[in-house]
UniProtKB/TrEMBL annotation, chain A:
Annotated source species: Umbelopsis ramanniana AG
Any one Gene Ontology molecular-function term assigned to this protein's record: calmodulin binding
WD repeat feature ranges: 410-451, 468-501, 544-566, 673-714
Similarity remark: Belongs to the WD repeat striatin family.
The protein, known as: Striatin N-terminal domain-containing protein
SUPFAM superfamilies per UniProt: WD40 repeat-like
Species lineage: Eukaryota, Fungi, Fungi incertae sedis, Mucoromycota, Mucoromycotina
Coiled coil: 45-79
From TrEMBL, chain B:
The protein's name: Mob1/phocein
UniProt KW Endoplasmic reticulum keyword: no
Binding locations of Zn(2+): 99, 104, 175, 180
The keyword Metal-binding is annotated on this UniProt entry: yes
């Protein structure tokens, strides 16, 4: 006799849902429509279910709000929320009235305000345990006539029975409505692969109600089981469900005729697909609650997702062991198909998603409720493995704080990269190569991509934002002038060229703009090996000093357009007329601006002498005598000279593996160390003046703590493969950010990050 | 690792090292000792060997394109194409003064119109854009570690890219030849790049002969064995067709020209074949 209760309540619920579905289409009639289900819904079982739904709804509310924040499509989200809220209001009212009704009849559930998650969980458990949640759906209800015939005999709740009869009229009416709705929905879903989201949502909303109904019978089961006062109809219900469910996959596969059960099933899937997409995009942690409480598909439908669907299916399969495998297979296919159709995703993607979902369910079955948080982590990991990777990476780097880690390998040059340079403020890298080109790389883009997408992108190819061609021989040195928005480059072709930096929004294959090539500085008669831009103006112009194999150091006015060459110094100072002599004098190899006195320029010569010039006058302020062990050949020469940013210190990197420190005031050698296994080619000091980086032909980059007296090596790694007998050719710190860049003979530009 | 480096440096310390020393006169740069291919011990041995051959005599094309012993033919082509791109960088500066949007609003050569494949939808670019985009794209593709992960062997599926790259790069020569003859000749005299490229393409079938539209006289002293003499009339007939438009189908991936669509590109050669037949 109790068996009638679920049946009739199902029917009533169905009516209610049908009305609601109508409301979904015509929201203005909302409050009117609510009335009928309110007054016709009796029963303890329903009270229990309503409470259940309320909890779920609140969860969903929270989840939807979270989704809002994350969603990029504001319009869609707004609409979605609107519908959801309408539904919630409706449900709230229904539940409240139900609750009052129930309280009067039976003082059964006396804790309606139990809303904490804990309680919910407990509740879930109690429901969960007695119920292997088969989720019979509409078909079982549609054919409820058969079932009810059987069940009638056992009916011990005449009120409910009567109610169900009363409902019959409304039921048929709303069934008609539902039919027409679903027909439309089906057409939409079938005809267009890219169903507008709004439409999808409407159908989804309707499906929710269909699911409510379909779920109702099941929930009724739970309730009866957990409520001991009522007799247990679940066996019969289950039997009915079993009889019906195996048919569905075939139906859904074979036909799109808007029969209620099949079409609903399909729509449910589409809906779930949508939810899956949203879920993926927004990372709504709804999965947790949904997965935890698998029975309440009705509410969950609002934020349904693949996980839930898959789980539901699985459970259904479990309850229908005979047909399980076949059904599961076809349903999965159907789901995949629908999701694919809907979002034109690749089959692989969808499959992956489903797999993830399944895995989740698996895990979940093994994880006790208490470990919800850890599950959350796992869910996130599974859903966004890329992010997890990044996190792992970050954690990794945090555990080893003071280390530089390679972040980007920039491949784009066809030959040795002889010089790299950072933009002063931005993460722009300029690189000059033996292939005659200068390329600009924008790490900023990749970093954004990195955090959003995945760590893997650092290993993907990155295009330079621009390639400058203009030199007729290999490029020896590049430098970006942030203030001027320019790039300077020197070459073996004895010119310095000036380039305009491309606009920030330049795309890789935008039209060629020859205007970016501003002007060449012509004056040197041999290869230019080094140059340096002055950070501040001297005597109302911003100088650039260049060192060339023609034996001269020249000062250029970068702000003028006419007479660029300001002065020219030979080994002996300001140039005189004896050009013949110049040829035999030592040639400058490298130069740097003395940061302790920005009007002074330190020039290193091949014979390892270092001379400090006054930029304005060209006077030699200081000469640091040549190293006694040097033999005036290139085998002992200074390859690179840098001045310390804060201390009066000059540091030179020598071809014979040495790094030397000189006091800029006295000219005395302060410290000498054998730094590399081969010639030292590159030096730079970080802006704080604590760390010196050196690169050598041995292919390694070494970092030295020069704040201590021991000047110990704090990190060493192989950075570049050797080509011919060259290795690392250039290194530079970023002036503001914890980044380091290096270029080498292997033609690769590498960027390293240092997490503080 | 460190010991390995130590060994290699000690073994080479007796001979002049193959490196550039800052401050060197330009005539002293790259005056490196000649090594046998087997003695070049680096990941870039083939590239180094090719560059060494070029330094020795860039006019001896036969020697340059002949496959050295112990090297895959594909790798040899790959390194040649890299070198080609590298050297083509030096052609651009001499072109960009005279080849402008105004002078050459379309990428044309001898009646052919080439569409730029660097964009999401293939379109007609001004010649200088086409040249720069093609060179950029080819460079990035040759540097793409996905398609060309190694300098020792090339994965089978990537081989088709070599042909796509060669076919496109050839158009740069073609445009320069037919529209900027002076720059072309000057560049050719300095580098023999075109002759080398054409000979290489013929030898390794990188470009269908029907697409080689620059008259043979500029190919240098080419042995008759490499190209049948019967080709001349074909060239003439091709040259007589003046208004052929060659469609270059989509290159969907802008970052890697010809990477995804070399198959499509093959269609590009079909109109050419038809023209050939006429």
């Amino acid at each position: 006799m109790m068996q009638q209760t679920p049946q009739s309540s199902q029917q009533r619920l169905l009516n209610g849902r049908d009305n609601v579905m109508k409301d979904a289409n015509i929201p203005s009639n909302f409050s009117l429509a609510i009335q009928s289900p309110e007054y016709t819904l009796p029963g303890v079982l329903h009270f229990l279910q309503q409470e259940w739904r309320r909890f779920e709804r609140e969860r969903n509310e929270w989840e939807i709000e979270k989704a809002e924040y994350k969603a990029r499509i504001a319009l869609l989200e707004g609409e979605r929320r609107g519908f959801a809220n309408l539904k919630l209001d409706l449900m709230k009212r229904v539940k409240m009235l139900e609750y009052a009704l129930r309280q009067e009849r039976k003082k059964y559930m006396n804790n309606p305000k139990a809303r904490t998650i804990q309680q919910q969980e407990e509740f879930t458990r109690t429901v969960d345990s007695p119920n292997p949640p088969s989720s019979p759906n509409l078909s079982s209800l549609r054919d409820s006539q058969d079932a009810s015939v059987k069940l009638e005999s056992q009916d011990k709740l005449p009120a409910a029975f009567v109610a169900s009869q009363i409902d019959d009229k409304a039921k048929t009416r709303s069934r008609e409505l539902l039919k027409s709705c679903l027909k439309e929905i089906n057409q939409l879903a079938l005809s267009t692969s890219k169903l507008p989201y709004t439409t999808a949502f409407t159908s989804g909303l309707q499906n929710q109600y269909s699911k409510i109904t379909s779920q109702a019978s099941q929930d009724v089961q739970h309730d009866t089981e957990s409520i001991s006062t009522l007799k247990d109809p679940s066996e019969e219900n289950k039997a009915a469900a079993r009889r019906q469910t195996p048919k569905q996959p075939d139906d859904s596969m074979s036909t799109f005729i808007p029969q209620h059960n099949t079409s609903l099933l399909q729509d449910g899937k589409i809906e779930s697909g949508q939810q899956q997409k949203v879920d993926k995009d927004n990372d709504i942690p709804s999965t947790i609650s949904d997965v935890e409480v698998p029975d309440n598909v009705d509410e969950v439908a609002m934020i349904n997702n693949v996980i839930n669907i898959a789980k539901e299916r699985k459970q259904r399969d479990q309850s229908n062991p005979g047909s399980g495998s076949r059904k599961g297979l076809s349903e999965e296919e159907q789901l995949t198909k629908d999701v694919q159709e809907k979002y034109s995703l690749s089959a692989d993607k969808v499959r992956k998603l489903l797999k993830n979902a399944e895995r989740l369910i698996h895990q979940e079955n093994n994880i006790p409720m208490s470990s919800k948080d850890s599950l959350l982590g796992k869910v996130d990991n599974l859903k966004l493995p890329s992010e997890a990777e990044v996190e792992v990476e970050d954690a990794d780097s945090e555990s080893r704080p003071k280390m530089w880690r390679a972040k980007h390998n920039l491949r784009g040059h066809l030959d040795c990269v002889r010089s790299v340079s950072f933009h002063a403020n931005e993460l722009l890298i300029a690189s000059g190569s033996d292939d005659g080109t200068i390329k600009i790389w924008d790490l900023k883009n990749s970093i954004v991509k990195d955090s959003v997408m995945q760590k893997k992108s650092s290993h993907e190819e990155m295009d330079p934002i621009i390639t400058y061609r203009g030199h007729t021989m290999g490029v020896t040195k590049v430098e970006i002038s942030a203030e001027q928005g320019r790039l300077y480059s020197s070459s073996l072709d004895s010119t310095i060229r000036v380039w305009q930096l491309p606009p920030a929004d330049k795309s890789p294959y935008s039209p060629y703009d020859s205007a970016l090539n501003i002007a060449p500085y012509i004056g040197h008669t041999d290869a230019i090996w080094d140059f340096k831009l002055f950070p501040t103006a001297i005597a109302d112009y911003l100088p650039l000093a260049s060192a060339s194999a023609d034996g001269t150091v020249k000062i250029w006015d970068t702000s003028a357009s006419g007479n660029l060459l300001k002065s020219s110094w030979s080994y002996n100072g300001v140039i005189d007329e004896h050009q013949d002599e110049q040829r035999n004098l030592p040639v400058p190899t490298s130069l740097d601006i003395c940061h302790t006195n920005l009007r002074q320029l330190a020039v290193a010569y091949r014979n390892t002498e270092v001379k400090v010039f006054d930029v304005e006058t060209g006077q030699i302020v200081l000469t640091i005598p040549a190293d006694p062990s040097a033999d005036n050949s290139c085998l002992t020469q200074i390859n690179k000279i840098v001045s310390h940013p804060t201390l009066p210190l000059l540091i030179t990197g020598h071809e014979n593996k040495l790094i030397k420190f000189y006091d800029i005031n006295t000219g005395n050698s302060v410290f000498t160390m054998s730094a590399h296994l081969d010639g030292v080619t590159a030096l730079d000091i970080d802006p704080s003046g604590i760390t010196l980086v050196s690169g050598g032909h041995d292919g390694s980059i070494r970092l030295w703590d020069i704040s201590s007296t021991s000047r110990s090596c704090v990190q060493e790694y192989t950075a570049h493969r050797r080509k011919a007998d060259e290795g690392v050719l250039s290194v530079q710190f970023h002036k503001e950010l914890p980044w380091l860049v290096s270029g080498g003979a292997d033609g690769i530009v590498k960027a390293y990050h240092h997490s503080i | 690792m460190t010991t390995a480096v130590e060994e290699s440096t000690t073994t080479t310390s007796n001979t002049p090292l193959r490196r550039l020393y800052p401050g060197s006169h330009v005539e002293d740069t790259f005056q490196w000792p000649t090594l046998a291919l087997d003695d070049i011990e680096s990941s870039f041995s083939v590239q180094e060997y090719l560059q060494q051959l070029l330094r020795e005599d860039y006019t001896d094309i036969q020697r340059l394109i002949d496959l050295p012993e112990g090297i895959d033919a594909e790798i040899w082509q790959y390194e040649h194409l890299r070198q080609l791109c590298s050297q083509l960088n030096y052609l651009i500066p001499s072109l960009d003064s005279e080849c402008t949007v105004d002078s050459c609003p379309e990428m044309k050569a001898d009646g052919w119109l080439y569409l730029c494949a660097a964009h999401p939808v293939t379109k007609s670019c001004p010649a200088i854009d086409y040249i720069v985009h093609t060179l950029d794209g080819a460079t990035m593709l040759l540097n793409n570690s996905k398609y060309f992960p190694s300098r020792i062997s090339i994965p089978e599926p990537s081989l088709k890219h070599l042909q796509a790259i060669a076919r496109r790069l050839y158009r740069i020569f073609a445009h320069a030849y037919f529209h900027h003859r002076e720059a072309f000749e000057f560049f050719e005299n300095e580098t023999c790049l075109h002759s080398r490229f054409v000979r290489l393409s013929k030898k390794y079938s990188l470009i269908p002969k029907s697409l080689l539209i620059i008259p043979r006289s500029t190919d240098g002293d080419e042995p008759s064995s490499n190209s049948p003499t019967s080709e001349s009339p074909a060239i003439l007939s091709r040259r007589s067709s003046t208004s052929t438009v060659q469609e270059i189908p989509d290159d969907t991936d802008t970052s890697t020209i010809g990477a995804e669509d070399a198959g499509d590109e093959d269609q590009g050669s079909e109109p050419a074949d038809r023209v050939d037949d006429e």
